[in-house]
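writing this on my phone so excuse typos. first protein, seq and then structure
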Amino acid sequence: MSAGILDARTARADLLRDPHAVATQAALDVERTRGIAESRRERLAALRAAQGRALAHKHRKTALDKAARLLRERSVPEAAVTLATLAKAATEIDAEAAAQEAAGRDLSLKLEVAQAALEAATQAGDTVRSLSGAVTVLSGLPRRTAGLDALMQRLAQEQLQHGEHEQEHTQAQQELAEHEQRLAVLVEEADRAQHAVTQARAHTDQIQEAVRGPLQEATAAAAHLQSANTALEAVEEQRGRVGKLEAELRQLREAREEAEEALAAVERGEAAHTAGSALAPGDACPVCVRPLPTDFTPPSPLDGKALGKARGKLTKSSKAVSTAVTAAAQATAQLSATEQTAQKHQRAHLAALERMDTALLQLQELVDTMRPDVVPGVATTLDTLSRQTAAQARVLAGSAPKNRAQITRAVKTLVQPLRATEAETLAAHTSAQAKLATAQAEKEAAQADLKRQRGRLQRERKRLEKSQLQYESDLQTLLTEVTGLPASVRPAQDTLNRSGFGRDLRFWL
């Protein structure tokens, strides 16, 4: 049994090599087996016919022997002729009987050989039923081996295609890795671009405010300088007016003194009237010190017209002096206020210049702080901006004051190179974002394609596994049936070896 199992395994292994050759050889073996069976049937029929003829000749010979014996026993006329005839017939019969006996012996030998072959075939299992089953198996062997060969070729083709798809999948994985690496690089570039935009915008805003400070202080210094100059001009004008008013006051005072002297001269001539004009009833008399009576009336002036005229002139002069004093005082106060205003604007002008210098220094410090973090071109732009701002501030400090809109335009003009650099940085950031979006879309497309290829490979593997199992099952069934054939009709070992069925199918999977 072990030898049979080993032969079956060897036959199975050899059967795998070339199914088509095995099928062809099996078909030839079937035809050969059919010829052998037909030849044996013909020989068996001929043997049986020869046995029948030999038996008939034996019976005839017995009858002839009996007739010859009876003839020898009888005495009939012309016996010699009859005996000669009979002897000739007997000779012919003996020759034919010898020939028949030789044929019978030959047929008996053949029958014995055929019987021995039949017995050997019976012992070997070559029964009519087994041979019939072998005919059925061998007649279907070409078709089944051809089917196995086609299945194996299809498996090989599918495996080749599967290998190509695996290569495509590997290439797709590599491309996806490249997309991911490129995407990571673009993400870093986009982050750097975003940082550069934020930094450029922040730097530009800081620089713009730092530039605005000196220009505003320069404009404030110019305004204070203009106000101080205006105030100084007003001081000079007011000083001239004060001098004029003081000169007029001196003249009015001299005129009042003259009016007082004239009035004093008139009053000395009118002493009684002058002394009494200021008294009322009950007042002490300036001469006797007694109270004046209730009906006291001042004495009338001697020249009332001259006295009234002198008094009127003095009153007018006094009013003119009072008015001039007031005007001179107001002019002096206004002059003092104007001088204080001029001094205040001069101090404010100096303070604004100091703040301007401080703002310029702060601008330069800001530029020095930013210089290490920017590219050389931007550093040069910052240095130029600092110098231009200082020059512009000094020009503004010595020119007519500017309004807020003019200062804003001047600041924008100075900062325009930085704004241009910021725009270039923003354009670079926009380009980086566009490249990043494109790379992200390419990565997603590569992921989708890789997922599709992975699904296709899984389906192909399942189909190949199913086909392999079907092939192995069909092959195992065929090998089992071939192994179970009688040895006399079983395909030769070298035929199975030439068939190529012995290859390991797992090599393909």
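second protein below, same order as before
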Amino acid sequence: MDMRYVQYINLKEKYYEPPLEKATESALKISDVPFNWVINSDKHWTYYSKPDSDLPIQGWKIHISSIPKEAKEILRVVSDFLFENSVPFKHVSNVWELVLKNSKYGDRASSGKFITIYPNNESQFTFLLEKLHYLLKDFSNGPYILNDKRWLDGNVYFRYGAFKEMYLINGASKIPAIQNFSGELIPDSRAPYYTVPDFIEEPLIVKKCQKRMGKYKLLYQSLIIILLNLLCTSVMVEGFMWQITFLQTLK
């Protein structure tokens, strides 16, 4: 389903109407923006940056996920921290847009992305991962962001990608792009799974975290197998009874 149609549905009208009322009623605004920050917006995003910020064209970007009812408070907590540390960011402009992008028919490449944060370098990236996770640890988990990697078990995600708009032109299509080390434009993958460009290496802190989490995942999988073995040899999946062969599971 094309979500552009859903945006324009208004139960009070016979025809498609611009979602101005829903967008206005659920607008997300930051009340105490520092005086020296610039604010810009488009149909979906609101952007915040300092005039003197000199971001790279690409790098490790951070995404924050949120359920709609906690979006306003998460935005307050995150924005206060980012203003304090002079980190540019953008957020979905209203709760209605967030509900749509997180819905069943939302774009899998963008679903879950409520706030996008642009670290200036790898050192700042790792600092932000740890601090943001701590700040958001008591909030409910938002939707899982498919083309990012999750930091620990909270609402902080990340991937390598473009900070500034770059495109490859393929006929009438514009394909989001990044630059390789030769300065050549290559596709900025928007597949619904986490990928890292072949010329980029993950930061050491990410590798260490992944190794640690991998041990927990193996333990979790082992516990599931043991529990299934103790409970029964079959499970109900979508109304059908399937027999579990534990030998195949172990393989």
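The longest strand covers residues 58-64. thats all i got for now
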